[in-house]
């Protein structure tokens, strides 16, 4: 990575402000994704997801097996 050259302290301050904002956004994104993952890993949610997947596969199997009769 090529070092960036600055011509004034205002440019440096501006770049630092941008980097601080990006860091804050990244931290918020990590926090959001962590909380979302915690909710997804609740036992009730895991069981519901397993049930839905089973239903989808069962329907696909039945339709695939008996589709030629219709």
Write the layout of secondary structure elements.
Blueprint (H helix, E strand, L loop, with lengths): L8 H32 L2 H24 L4
- Helical segment tally? 2
Poorly predicted runs: none
What share of residues are in beta strands?
A: under 5%
Structural class: mainly alpha
Backbone CA Rg: 26 Å
Residue share in helices? over 70%
Q: Ends: how far apart?
A: 63 Å
Structure summary, number of beta strands: 0
Shape: elongated
Q: Secondary-structure element order, as H and E?
A: HH
Biggest sheet statistics: none
* Average pLDDT level: 90
Provide a descriptive summary of the structure in words.
- With 70 residues, this protein is mostly helical.
- Helices cover 80% and strands 0% of the residues.
- The chain contains 2 helices and no strands.
- The longest helix is centred in the middle third of the chain and has 32 residues, at 9-40.
- The protein starts with 8 loop residues before the first helix and ends with a helix.
- The model has no long low-confidence stretch (mean pLDDT 90).
């Amino acid at each position: 990575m090529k070092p960036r050259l600055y011509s004034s302290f205002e440019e440096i301050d501006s770049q630092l402000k941008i980097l601080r904002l990006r860091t804050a956004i990244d931290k918020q994104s990590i926090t959001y994704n962590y909380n979302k993952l915690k909710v997804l890993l609740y036992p009730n949610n895991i069981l519901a997801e397993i049930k839905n997947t089973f239903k989808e596969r069962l329907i696909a199997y039945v339709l695939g097996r008996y589709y030629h009769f219709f």
